[in-house]
Amino acid sequence: GELACTNRRPVKMPFTRFVEIGRVALINYGPEEGKLCTIIDVVDQNRALVDGPYGITGVHRQVINLRRLSLTDFKVKIGLNARAKSLKKAWAAAGVQEKWAATAWAAKRASRSAKASLTDLGRFKAMLAKKTRAKKVKTAFNKLKKSA
Fold first, then answer.
1. Which of 43, 48, 50, 142 is most deeply packed, by most CB within 10 A?
2. CB burial class (10 A; 0-12, 13-18, 19+) of residue 41?
3. What distance separates the 2 farthest-apart alpha carbons in the chain?
4. CB 59 within 8 A of CB 40
5. Is the preceding omega at residue 14 within 30 degrees of 0, hence cis?
6. Which helix (H) or strand (E) holds 26?
7. CA-closest candidate to residue 71, choices 8, 104, 126, 23
């Protein structure tokens, strides 16, 4: 008698982004907030050694708490404690900056920062544009409601 169940579906892992060497992350807190970095070594359960590369992202090599990192879907092919030169080459080969710029996450951050940097006049113009758009939507909706 064989006891193994043969009709079981394979278990799908709930997580796809792991803290691993070569994982690109976004720093979400601290002086480097908003910058991308690459995990080049895992120090312990709570900390990782990250590097920008500095020439591209402006992040120096440093140990950072994992709570300050948001993992992205991108991964570069590098070795343990990769040098800055090889990391820069790997970033260029993987096209990380271009891929990041194309994500909705990056677009959302960019729009948020653009909205935060608006002047008083800019906020006023945005308010007027919002009002006119809402009026157009309302009239179109009422027209459809009336015809239905």
1. 50
2. middle
3. 80
4. no
5. no
6. strand 23-27
7. 23
